[in-house]
Amino acid sequence: MKRIILWTLAAWCGNIAIAQDYQKKFEQLGTMLPTPNSYRSASGAPGPQYWQQKADYDIEVTLDDLTQSIKGSEVITYTNNSPDPLGYLWVQLDQNMRAADSDTYKSTTNEVQDSISAKSLMSLSHDYGFDGGFKIHDVLNTQGAELPYFINKTMMRVELPTILNRGESFSFRIDWSYNINDRMLVGGRGGHEYFPIDGNYLYTIAQWFPRMAVYDDVNGWQNKQFLGRGEFALPFGDYNVAITVPADHVVAATGELQNASKVLTKDQLQRLERSRTASSPVIIVTQDEAIAKEQSPVRNKTKTWEFKADNVRDFAFATSRKFIWDAQGVQVGDKRPLAMSYYPKEGNPLWEKHSTEAVVNTLITYSKYTIDYPYPVAISVHAASIGMEYPMICFNFGRPNEEGTFNDRTKYGMISVIIHEVGHNFFPMIINSDERQWTWMDEGLNTFVQYRTQVEQYENFPSRRGTAASIVPYMKGDKSLIRPIMTNSEQILQFGNNAYAKPASAMTILRETVMGPELFDYAFKQYAQRWAFKHPTPADFFRTMEDASAVDLDWFWRGWFYGNDHVDIGVDKVKWYRMKLPEGEPERQLSNKKQKIASGSSQEKNAGSFQDGFQEFTVIPTGNQSYREFMARVDDQDIITRHENKNYYEVTFTNNGGLVMPIIVEFTYVDGTSEIEKIPAEIWRKNENVATKVFVKEKEVVNISLDPEAQTADVEAENNHFPRKEIKSKFDQFKEKQGR
């Protein structure tokens, strides 16, 4: 008896293991997501006790155009809304990434090649001759007393004189300076570009002041070091910023200009006012005005531009005497923000034609899918070889050749980057995810809505990312070179594919193939509205998408975001059946060939072609045992009559890639017509490797194809057809469609 019990237990455990293996892709995420609490609810919404910190800034900064340096002073007022008493504050010093002893340089891997250019050698040895990093001069309280502080690479700990309890605020001052990097030589998100032809600079200034780190309910202090790739986690606050620059410079910045009458001419003020209601861009600073300043620069006088920005997580600005400036108001809900562009003459005529138009299109489409754009301005600044975003302002590439001509590649590349970077106002500037940890939450979601903008606002736009087909080469690549989407920013391999392209394609597939646009759009908008001006996590996004749609998506998050499987669903075999009529019934009208085949062995039929004919099955009377107690009886003869001329196709699908997905099946009939059936991913829930399903058709089928419109990122086209035939891969079709 004991042996029998042990054998039974072992068999039971074995069956459980097999069942778990089959069901693991459909297991709920469960403990993989953090436990809901009063701060973050199980629905994905902020909880009743959700809190976040606030950091307000008053900043005065001077940019020296002769030495390419910045000197500033800021007063930070930090409000503790958390339930935790704080004894110190953490401040981000991102410029320290460029200090000589930076961990960025130390942790960079590289190799010596047989031959190397001098510039590459300089990069290899980090021998730029550049004194980078913040110079912290003072850290003081508002009474002028020194505060103890400690700089740990790109983070600075400021010790408080007393504990900062919930609801209390503390103000302190930091004085600092740093040298502005040559962006075209050293690289970087911000810096300067020098134009030797006229001897002037264009500055794009970012990560330029010591900024508060985030303290939240998920991580406590988000004080992970900045190595250059994982971007920023920042609290919201209000900014008053005074920027002193050469008197002939034009400044673009986060926020609204407060002293336009002091820094603009009368004509420029009138043009600016006219642009607010214009239906096309109005030139505020003309190209002729910019060229005149280039030729006769004012280097010994300054002006101070004053800006105010409320409820933003960061502040950036751009300044140059070379700037042309245009603007156009765009109606978004009950507001009319200004879409604006700043660019040197080197950007024309491309920028004058297309930049502000792209900003307008972005605000309209993103507002449709998320929330109405809440800020007063949205700015696109032209800067070579960069695409980078900040609240209300971004820096974008796209430069014609010296003669001013440009091809479609340059034009569409510029429009793409403008849509993308302006779109970052929504992800993560408003829907404020932690970029230091989860790049996909801003880059991936943003790339998805960028794709929607390109589709909806432009005809035949050559989108590089966002479709199912475009991600196929990455998905079928070497798995040792691929990381799951849910990977920290600094550990990602193939950064563009992992953090931008794959999550964007996943969102398109989720919208078009899994959920449908109506359900997806509602849930996606719910996420945006719930977490606007707050700090969402991946779990908040996953939970909200399910909560607002009533669609169980755990299998989708598990496969697309936590794993490296790819989509490769094939038609393994097809069997064609027809009902065998009872004795004495008239035979079907069949060709002699089909009659002959139908009488053959069932094992030989349907082996590789519908030309092999069908098999027959027999319908027998329904036995009493089928009814059990109180079950209604059926009319056997009526059922036989209704089904006697139908075709039954038993199709066996195989999941070769491991990633479970809906199955999209196209049936082509003998009369040349076709129809598509969509089978939900749950068909794989009992067996993740093989699924067999019978399709009942009135007409005879001559071809069965899977994923005919390349909607699932299936990497293998050849096994998608019965009968088998040679076909171009989905990606080859995608490239042909894009004209590449």
What topology emerges from the helices and strands here?
Blueprint lengths: L1 H22 L30 E11 L4 E11 L6 E7 L10 H4 L11 H8 L9 E7 L7 E4 L2 E10 L4 E11 L11 E5 L4 E6 L5 E2 L2 E2 L3 E2 L15 E10 L3 E4 L2 E2 L2 H4 L2 H10 L6 E4 L1 H9 L6 E11 L4 E4 L3 E6 L8 E6 L6 H20 L7 E6 L4 E4 L2 E4 L11 H16 L16 H18 L14 H4 L19 H21 L1 H15 L6 H10 L6 H8 L7 E12 L11 H7 L16 E4 L17 H8 L3 E9 L7 E7 L4 E6 L10 E8 L3 E6 L14 E2 L7 H9 L2
Parallel strand pairs: 1-13, 20-21, 21-23, 24-25
Antiparallel strand pairs: 1-2, 2-7, 3-6, 3-10, 4-7, 5-6, 8-9, 9-18, 11-12, 13-17, 14-18, 15-17, 16-19, 19-20, 22-23, 24-26, 26-29, 27-28, 27-30, 30-31
Helix pairs in contact: 7-8, 7-9, 8-9, 9-11, 11-12, 12-13
Question: Explain this structure to me?
Answer:
The structure is a single chain. The protein is α+β, with helices and mostly antiparallel strands and 740 residues long. A hairpin with an 8-residue loop joins strand 19 (324-329) and strand 20. The N and C termini lie far apart (72 Å). The protein folds into 3 domains: 21-48 and 465-564, no CATH class; 54-105 and 120-437, Immunoglobulin-like (Sandwich); 569-738, no CATH class. A 7-stranded mixed β-sheet has the order 4-7-2-1-13-17-15. Strands 16-19-20-21-23-22 form a 6-stranded mixed β-sheet, sandwiched between helices. Strands 5-6-3-10 form a 4-stranded antiparallel β-sheet, with no helix packed on it.
Structural class: alpha+beta
Beta fraction of the residues?
Answer: 25-35%
- CATH homologous superfamily identity of the largest domain: tricorn interacting facor f3 domain
User: How much helical structure, as a percent, in the residues?
Assistant: 25-40%
* Domains (count): 3
Query: Could you say what the CATH architecture of the largest domain is?
Result: Sandwich
| DSSP strand tally | 31
How does the major sheet shape up?
Answer: 7 strands, mixed
- Unreliable runs: 1-22, 586-604
Q: What would the CATH topology of the largest domain be?
A: Immunoglobulin-like
Question: What strand order characterises the main sheet?
Answer: 4-7-2-1-13-17-15
